[in-house]
Amino acid sequence: MLNRDATVIAVSVDPYHRAVVAYGHQAAVSIAERFVEQVLKPISPRARFERRSDLQWLISLSVDDGGHDALIDATRRKLGAHTVSDGDRSAFLDVCMGVAIGADLRADEADLVRHADAALCVALTRRVHVEFAHPSMVRQISAEVDLAAWLTRSVERDFSVFYQPIVAMADRRVVGYESLLRWHTESGVLAPDAFLAVAEGISLLAPIGRHAIGEAIRDLATDITETAGDEAFVSLNLSGQQLSDEGLVCYIDGLIRDHRVDPARVWIEVREDQVVRLETSAARTVNGLHDLGCTICVDDLGAGFSALRYVRDLPVDVLKVDRTLIAQLVHSHSDRAVVRAISEMAAATGLRMVAEGIESDDVLEVLTEFGFDYAQGFFFGRPEPLATWTGR
Ligand code: G
Ligand code: MN
Fold first, then answer.
1. Which has the closest alpha carbon to 320: 362, 363, 268?
2. Residue 164 Cα to ligand 2 middle (Å)
3. pTM reported for the whole predicted model
4. Ligand nearest to the CA of residue 322, numbered in listed order
5. How far is the CA of 299 from the centre of ligand 2 (A)?
6. Cα–Cα distance between 60 and 63 in angstroms, integer?
7. Where is each EAL domain found (predicted)?
8. CA-wise closest residue to 55 among 88, 96, 84
9. Which of 47, 347, 372, 391 is at a distance of 20 to 30 A from 16, taking alpha carbons?
10. Residues with CB under 6 A from ligand 1
11. Which long-range contacts (CB under 8 A, 24 or more apart) does 222-225 make?
12. Nearest-angstrom CA–CA distance, 386 and 370
């Protein structure tokens, strides 16, 4: 009987199916068995080995049993990709493990298996050979699974588009809106940072995203034009996965034609890390949207690693400077220096600039000095349903 001082290891042999492909399923299974006999069992002869399926084992061992430390040590140092002798040749094998150490986790046997599985899950996602369980892993993975199930059950009407005004620096007039996806759940309205990664993981973002794009372009052609004029624009945020959607350019082209809007009034926001690599499908989409006549913006500029080369290589029209650079503009010398450099580059290359995240008016003077064209932020208005701005 295991106690809290046990260790449980979830082992997945050939988790990426490479040996199955290279040697065939049956051969891979017998290589895996040989690996367990030749490599794993000798490390810790007193451990209990339970076979869970063709290529999965569960190893459990109490601290009191001999070889406990050797086993932990081996998982840390020795185990990983392997060659296993298979008659006169040697076969290659990937091995992935999740290790749950009872003394660290204060969990009993049933829970330890779950912790070991969680650690294995993390190891597989991170593509490392061994991961040690942390109490938060089970919680985190369960929350992601719940969210995915919940998202799958949601229907299009649970999602809507909110709009945040963007004003011209010259006269503070609203000249356009950033459209922002929102998910209406029983526990409140969620912004994309709460569900984007999970939605992408289950391929749900593409349909939800298309629905939102359709709504935004329809709103642009109707209520936004009527209340903010026929030069007002709407901006769309496109995630990495949406940008790799080969049919997206055609879809947006169809919407622009159906609603008869000037394509320059459709702003496309992409984050710099999604387009810095040229020759990718994301970069092709950006070029395709530019060819349609859309206005291309780099979103959150300065929030991550700036490569800036896309200014030369991609058809960028607008730089949206991230709020982390704008927030301290009045007080921080170095932020001012960075933003000054960005504004000089923008002026020299004919790019327009938007300042994001304006929460008070004390920064507006500096923005004018740097030649910002537009500003956006809670000071001018939070993201709200369109009716808030148009009164319709
Ligand atoms: O990455 P992107 O710039 O598209 O993010 C837009 C998000 O930024 C919106 O969800 C919005 O809620 C948030 N946001 C917009 N304006 C402000 C602001 O003035 N302050 C803060 N803290 N967040 C803002
Ligand atoms: Mn944005």
1. 268
2. 10
3. 0.77
4. 1
5. 5
6. 10
7. 140-392
8. 96
9. 47
10. 164, 180, 191, 237, 299-300, 323, 356-359, 377-378, 383
11. 223/386, 223/390, 223/392, 224/177, 224/386, 224/390, 225/261
12. 31
Question: Closest-lying ligand to the alpha carbon of 323?
Answer: 1
Nearest alpha carbon to residue 318 among 269, 272, 283, 381: 269
Tokens (6 digits) for 89: 């040749």
CA of 356 to the centre of ligand 1 (A): 7
**What are the φ and ψ backbone dihedral angles of 303, each rounded to 5 degrees?**
-80, -25
pLDDT tens for each residue of the chain, 392 residues long = 455 688 999 999 999 999 999 999 999 999 999 989 988 888 888 899 999 999 999 999 988 777 778 888 888 776 666 777 767 778 888 999 999 998 888 887 789 999 999 999 999 999 888 999 999 999 999 998 988 888 877 777 789 999 999 999 999 999 999 999 999 988 899 999 999 888 888 778 888 899 999 999 999 999 999 999 999 999 999 998 899 888 999 999 999 999 999 999 999 999 888 776 767 888 899 999 999 999 999 999 888 766 677 777 789 999 999 999 999 999 999 999 999 999 999 999 999 999 999 999 999 999 999 999 999 999 999 999 999 999 88
- C-alpha closest to that of 183 among 154, 140, 211: 154
* Nearest ligand 1 atom to alpha carbon 320: 3
Axis crossing angle, helix 248-258 with helix 205-219, rounded to the nearest 10: 20
Structural domains in the chain, CATH included, are 7-135 (3.30.70.270), 146-390 (3.20.20.450)
Which atom of ligand 1 lies closest to the CA of 192?
Answer: 10
- Measured in Å, residue 110 CA sits from the centre of ligand 2 at 45
For a mutational test of ligand 1's pocket, the pick from 161, 356, 363, i.e. the residue with the most ligand atoms closer than 8 A to its C-beta, is: 356
